[in-house]
Design a protein that fits this description.
single chain; 535 residues; Rossmann fold; five-stranded parallel beta sheet; 8 strands; 6% strand; transferase activity; Putative sugar transferase
Length: 535
């Protein structure tokens, strides 16, 4: 198999990228493949304005370039940049791994079926979970050895970060634990479109209970990308809780370091903790967990039950006020928890309304509120919310984009909000609610042009297909009525005008026609209201 490659080529941030890297080296030795790598630029380039807006470390903005991290000899020997092709003949530039995190693979079968003519691209997922024959303890031990060997090929700036982390760790001693508070895009920039990974981040109010429970026995170091919020958290612990053994990683900053060196320093210091408290799904904390010592990685979503999470966040969310988007994120989690625990719909609605007070333009949260209102049969309120969305072109476009957003394959594929859509189709007397009716039409139109079995779970497929058929029958019947009632008097009826507008939109069979449909209805209804009683 030495003629085949296993290539590390992730394009995201340092944690996922290096897990992918270590796995490629591990698999190369395990099954006799050649190791290679490509070090792509981060998939998103931040503008200067974005980098300076608020004191947040933007994901990928602290990434070493290939030349800044590795020695010239290492690059010469292992880099495959601009040398590999995909099966379609295009330049291979980043990993598109065959590995799905919920699947099971076997080493003997894996090597028989190369992904590309030259071999395979690597994965960042835990190989001891993907491959039953890989022992977890042996795997992690080997990854630590691979890391230690790999650091010998680091450039001097990177090695300085490693040495400084050892120095700070010695200062802290062996008895410190860490909290990795990830916020980033899930709380700020990507909060509307990255809902599939909402539990990759942690509500800041949830970590307060860990601090209260652990501060008696340990020093605690808080890591995070939202520097202002973790600094505020430390101040709250010091002034309000009278805790002096709480640190943030910036307390140990080497001011001569670049942001890239600081990130590598933080990774190594985090890896030296006795325990790491995190969301449990961060590549950065997962990497730290295996690098230096067998730290105990503890997911805040697992050490607390859902009932406990709800209680903890509820008790702190009004006690300490963080940035309004951090507050909104905590209220979003209160909604998700209350929904999963099947608490009353009115309670769930209250949490969603709090998120929208704090983040009023968040379309994703408006979709959740619409879903909640439809479940409660509060159709008038739902229609009013949609009216306000549709009267703003930007919000209308964003609503449609997010409503039909696809789930990434590693998270199950399909439409993320597929569970919401049937509720629009169940509305009683839907003609009374023109904006709900418009969205229902758009959903039906979309479904007819997409793979329904792929987009929906098995329980929804039968219902959706039945509703599509009923809609088609309804359109035929309504068209017949319009043709048979040609008298001018009939054509002045409101129901006639609404039905006519709908049929015209459906005949166009264009997405844009349905988008414009609510405005047509609005004008029709407004006209009839203004002329009611006039002769």
């Amino acid at each position: 198999m030495q003629d085949k490659l296993i290539v590390a080529a992730r394009s995201d941030a340092f944690g996922e990228r290096m897990l992918n890297f270590l796995n490629a080296i591990y698999l190369s030795s395990k099954v006799g493949l050649k190791f290679g790598y490509i070090w792509p630029e981060y998939f998103y380039r931040w503008s200067k304005e974005e980098l300076l807006a608020r004191n947040i470390i933007r994901e990928g903005s602290d990434l070493f370039t290939e030349e800044e991290l590795f020695s010239k000899q290492f690059i010469k020997e292992y880099s495959y940049a601009n040398k590999l092709k995909t099966n379609e003949g295009e330049l291979f530039i980043q990993s598109e791994g065959i590995f799905l995190k919920d699947h099971v693979y076997h080493l003997t079968e894996f090597v028989k079926d190369p992904q590309y003519s030259w071999g395979w691209s690597s994965t960042q997922f835990d190989l001891s979970i993907l491959f039953p024959e890989i022992d977890t303890r042996e795997y992690h031990s080997e990854l630590r050895k691979i890391w230690q060997k790999l650091t010998l090929d680091f450039c001097d700036d990177a090695k300085d970060s490693l040495r400084f982390a050892m120095h700070v760790s010695n200062q802290l001693g062996d008895n410190f634990i860490s909290i990795h508070l990830r916020s980033g895009g899930f709380v700020y920039d990507d909060r509307m479109v990255a809902r599939f990974g909402v539990r990759k981040a942690v509500p800041i109010h949830l970590v307060l209970d860990v601090i209260q429970q652990k501060n008696k026995d340990y020093s605690i170091v808080i890591f995070g990308d939202d520097l202002d919020s973790i600094r505020q958290l430390k101040e709250y612990c010091f002034f309000s809780l009278n805790l002096s053994n709480i640190f943030i990683v910036d307390d140990f900053t080497n001011h001569n370091f670049s942001r890239k060196q600081q990130t590598l320093f933080e990774l190594i210091l985090l890896s030296m903790s006795l325990e790491i408290y995190t969301s449990g799904r961060s590549g950065f904390s997962n990497l730290a967990n295996i690098l230096t010592r067998e730290s105990k990685l503890l997911s805040l979503y697992e050490i607390y039950s859902k009932e406990e999470q709800l209680k903890i966040i509820s008790s702190y969310v009004s006690t300490i006020q963080f940035h309004h988007l951090q507050q909104a994120f905590s209220y979003l989690h209160l909604y998700l928890l209350s929904k999963e625990l099947k608490h009353p719909l009115s309670e769930q609605q209250a949490f969603l309304e709090e998120t929208l007070k704090l983040d009023p333009n968040n379309i994703a949260n408006k979709i959740l509120l619409l879903y909640n209102l439809l479940l409660q049969k509060k159709y008038s309120k739902a229609d009013f919310i949609l009216e306000n969305i549709f009267l703003n072109n930007h919000e209308k476009d964003l609503f449609m984009y997010i409503l039909f957003q696809e789930n990434p394959q590693p998270y199950g594929g399909g439409l993320f909000y597929s569970y919401v859509m049937p509720e629009f189709l169940k509305v009683d007397y839907i003609f009374k609610f023109p904006y709900l009716f418009s969205v229902a039409c758009i959903i039906i139109d979309k479904i007819k042009n997409m793979e329904i079995d792929f987009l929906y779970g098995a329980n929804d497929v039968k219902f959706i297909k039945t509703y599509v058929d009923k809609f088609e029958i309804f359109k035929v019947q309504y068209n017949n009525i319009l043709q048979s009632q040609a008298q001018c008097r009939c054509k002045t009826h409101l129901s006639y005008q609404i039905g006519k507008a709908f049929i015209e939109a459906s005949k166009e069979r264009r997405f844009l026609a349905y988008i414009k449909f609510p405005m047509k209805l609005y004008k029709i209804i407004k006209y009839f209201k203004n002329n009611k009683g006039k002769k």
